[in-house]
Amino acid sequence: MNYKKRDDSKVRAKKHLGQHFLKDLNIAQRIVDGLSGHNGYSKVLEIGPGMGVLTQFLITKDAFTTHVIEIDTESVAYLKKHYENLTPRIIEGDFLKFNPADYFSEPFAIIGNFPYNISSQIFFRALQIRDQIPEIVCMLQKEVAMRIASPPGNKDYGILSVLLQAFYDIDYLVSVPPGAFDPPPKVQSGVIRLRRNAVAALDCDEKMFFRVVKTAFNQRRKTLRNALKPIGEFPENPLLTKRAEQLSVAQFVELTKLAQELQPQI
Hints:
This protein is of the alpha/beta class.
């Protein structure tokens, strides 16, 4: 289906906010269609709507009510002018400082064209409130998107892969070229979908799990016995002869239990 090209000259893209406005409406529709309604949510929060290229499709969906959060005052003014009915559900602020309890009394999905310079921070914040977020559909730098969706044993597999895959099932949906944006970024983009899995809590201390994963990947070329020395001297275990990228989430949980025995006070 071909859509009329949107006039996206109204808001100036700001480099310090990492803004690259999507202008390909076919891609915008595909991103919105990525929302599956996983676990039956009825609210969706769009992060960084800009001039509403995703918003225009979101508000046509009867399955959920759309809210947006935007830090750019110029974009907020544009949205209020062009999407008057959305105005009561425009949250002016920073998602990284956002308290969902102030706006939502039930689970809500997240969608957005994430600013590439803070995409990892957005995911870490989402992890903190993961039980309120059954689904995330987002576009970000392709390299990061592939890393998050990558399985163990792949060179792209890293810290975010493990931490997010511990709590979400992840699908890589589509690649997006620089020409789909204004201004075009210097990198390719990718769209992924994260759906909350059945893991209510890890079978280990969560803070230690995060520490083990981050420490392991900080020196990913070393075997885990050497990479994890900052945490302590581990007893003999076959996992320690492997490198971080070779371990599944379950195996990192096993390593975390060993780390807890080394340092029970943590």
